[in-house]
Amino acid sequence: MEIYERLCERAANGHEIQVGQVGCGHMGSGLAHVTHQMVGMETRAISDIDVNRPLQALQAMGIPESAIVTTNDLGQATDALNAGQYVVTEDAVLLTQIEPLHAIVEATGLTEVGSAVAWHAIMNSKHVIMLNVETDVTVGPILHQLAQKAGCVYTAASGDEPGVCKMLYNFASTLGFEVVCLGKGKNNPIDLDATPESCYEEAMGKGMNPKMLSAFKDGSKTMVELAAMSNATGLVPDVPGMHGPKADVADLSRVLVPEKDGGVLSQRGCIDYSTGKVAPGVFCIITSPDGRIRTDMKFLSMGDGPYYTLYRPYHLCNIETPISIAEAVLYGESTIVSRSLVSEVVTIAKRDLRPGEILGEIGSPDMLGRTYTYEQAQALDAVPLGLATGGRVMAEIKKGELLTNANFSPDQDGFVYKLRQLQDAQFQHGARG
């Protein structure tokens, strides 16, 4: 695809892709900077609960104050964009209604906000790019189905590990290789006791939200990312939480392979991660039964086989997200979508929980996520991680125990809960994207 050439054409014709963005934290502000340096694409409207953050981001890009309109009024926002100005607002849903915007990027990481923004954008026939994998693994299938009916694109973003892994998966599968294992590097072992407080100093040094860093360290983010890969490809976690071996890049094709060949997997077709020297890269372990192809792979310095590692040594997170925006707007194509729930990220108590407590967000001291197959999660009556925030503990839950519908009640008034109920009803009757 000639994305750059098409963007140049749009710029020359005065038809740049105008992007609306929800969330202007670390990832969101960086994304705005990237589109500002691009040809043919610009982030024109940003929503955040703290309007100072998008204002600071726009001003840091050299945009004068006179070119920025802060408003929660649809008419004023539309007029501002039509006049070539930028819009800042507290109202996330407002962005989904502004006619000149071609696509909405959701970058909050919150399932309640992400599900509502995506739904409203689709209802207004706007392309949706989710820099919010937490929402995708919770209600991605129904959002994808709704977008298809509305004639727009719903997709998770390129740059996040799931999107980059899907590129490797597509490459290998298109050429007829069997994908044995698809996964990512994790730059540290999982710390089940990580909290925003324990991560605070490190987070400040990295310019991160401590709660976000806690979600990385306790494994929740890894579980979410791998579940998204699973739901987009049909690959499964070999065991709950996966193996997560310490293996360097050169070792992956010997470790994340079937047990009968000296590896740790009980089957082929899995998702997993490694805590060896793989991060920030992603990998796809492949094989082929064809002797001539194995000979060619050895000639091409891919090793003796029968397993080979495709490895991309980086993922650029928000910096790559504009690729997904362009693919959606220019070609009507998605980067990665959850077509059904193959895996579920269930909720585990990070500490002893008492009846009546209301749980915080992902990365809080309250809970963490662990990936199971969807069938296993259903059999356990487990509460999806994406529905845990704001829910109430109904019975004592010990640290390390699973949250189920018997001991925990999600917030049934939440938008994400209602959308998940709709998804469950649709897909239990065999609907697929």
Outline:
The chain has about 425 residues and is of the alpha/beta class. It has helices at about 5-10, 25-35, 50-60, 75-80, 90-95, 110-125, 135-150, 160-175, 200-205, 210-215, 220-235, 250-255, 290-300, 320-330, 375-380, 415-430; strands spanning about 15-20, 40-45, 70, 85-90, 105, 125-130, 155, 180-185, 235, 270-275, 280-285, 305-310, 345-350, 365-375, 390-395, 410. Helix 7 (about 135-150) runs parallel beside helix 11, helix 7 packs across helix 16 and helix 8 runs parallel beside helix 11 (about 220-235).
Word description of this protein:
The mean pLDDT is 96. The strands form 4 sheets. The protein has a 7-stranded parallel β-sheet, sandwiched between helices. The chain has a 5-stranded mixed β-sheet with strand order 9-10-8-11-12. The radius of gyration is 22 Å and the shape is globular. It has 16 helices and 16 strands. The protein has 433 residues and is α/β, with parallel strands linked by helices. It folds into 3 domains: 172 residues, NAD(P)-binding Rossmann-like Domain (Rossmann fold), CATH 3.40.50; 139 residues, no CATH class; 86 residues, Antifreeze-like/N-acetylneuraminic acid synthase C-terminal domain (Type Iii Antifreeze Protein Isoform Hplc 12, Alpha-Beta Complex), CATH 3.90.1210.10.
Looking at this protein, list some descriptive labels.
single chain; alpha/beta; five-stranded mixed sheet; 38% helix; 433 residues; Type Iii Antifreeze Protein Isoform Hplc 12; seven-stranded parallel sheet; 3 domains; Rossmann fold
